[in-house]
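In the laboratory, one determines a bound structure by crystallizing the protein with its ligand and collecting diffraction data. In a computational setting the workflow is compressed into a single prediction: the sequence and the ligand go in, and a structural description comes out. We illustrate the idea with nicotinamide-adenine-dinucleotide.
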Amino acid sequence: MRVLVTGGAGFIGSHLVDALVARGDEVVVLDDLSTGKRENLATVADRVQLIVGSVTDRDAVAAATDGCAVVFHQAAIASVPRTIEAPVETNAVNFGGTLNVLEAARAAGSRRVIFAGSAAIYGDDAPLPVGEDAPLSPLSPYAVEKLCAEHYVRVWAPLFGLETVSLRYFNVFGPRQDPRSPYSGVVSIFVDSLLRGEAPTIYGDGEQTRDFVAVDDVVRANLAAAAVSAPVGLVCNIARGEATSLNRLFATLSSLLGGPAAPRHAEARAGDVRHSLADVTRARDALGFVARTPVEVGLARLVEWARGVRGRAGADPGSG
Ligand SMILES: NC(=O)c1ccc[n+]([C@@H]2O[C@H](COP(=O)([O-])OP(=O)(O)OC[C@H]3O[C@@H](n4cnc5c(N)ncnc54)[C@H](O)[C@@H]3O)[C@@H](O)[C@H]2O)c1
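The predicted complex, in structure-token form:
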């Protein structure tokens, strides 16, 4: 089957591409390489058609979608601070780019679009664990853009007969996540600091919680969304349904990596969600998806990968 992965050179997208290539799909990637990297596709480069272009460019999206039965739309500017700095630009990508993808999929006769949504749309008010029907109160342009895009994705199903699934990812972590990203990269930022022998900074008391989900599970959720029978605007949380505090995250990583015994604490940041925890019932019932990788196992894999990258970069292994 020919499929398109927008944002396929990024963190999550590149893992998805690996899995699609492994199962024998013909994979097209559309990525402007703004945060994605060619090296993320290094092991599958000869089996993937990489189109370097933007989802804001309708011609590029049309060319990439041509002949594709399924579109996995992962491309986005996935940084809350960036959307606060430049909302017009990020809206064009996160919202406008999604509309372009939907229209291109419709024109190309694609069967299905799977959209990378975000738990950011819930904000801080919803009762926990948060289900998909909870009230939504996005707190940033990023969350607003993701929510508006998700509405388009949902509406395109009954309007145009396009099968669509929106997956609301919670905090995804794993190899290839860029530690310089200030959003949802808390795991990779901690790993990066500890490898350098530095104490990572926790904003607030560290008892805030996140529902961390390993990237291999997010890939499995996408494959399940591609396989489920005739979804019409389906929306599902993708998470483990398990809360981990940042203090516990630090303790686990510091036992894997050594280094400073305590994190640095700084004042809590305005706008940070205090607790995040998903109700994962719908993903189980509608997609047959249950996250399999325990957080500790995912963290151990990430640490192994990060050590390898650091080793190859010639960093002093004694410094971490
Ligand atoms: N990482 C998380 O915890 C998380 C949580 C919720 C939702 N998401 C969503 O998952 C998706 C993947 O995020 P990620 O964490 O892999 O981030 P990422 O930055 O690694 O991946 C995004 C990819 O999109 C590409 N891209 C950006 N703008 C583009 C444009 N205009 N045209 C084409 N490509 C463009 C980037 O180059 C990159 O390869 C995004 O839609 C993000 O909003 C991620």
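The CA atoms of residues 284 and 290 lie 6 Å apart. Keep in mind that any predicted model is a hypothesis to be tested, not a measurement.
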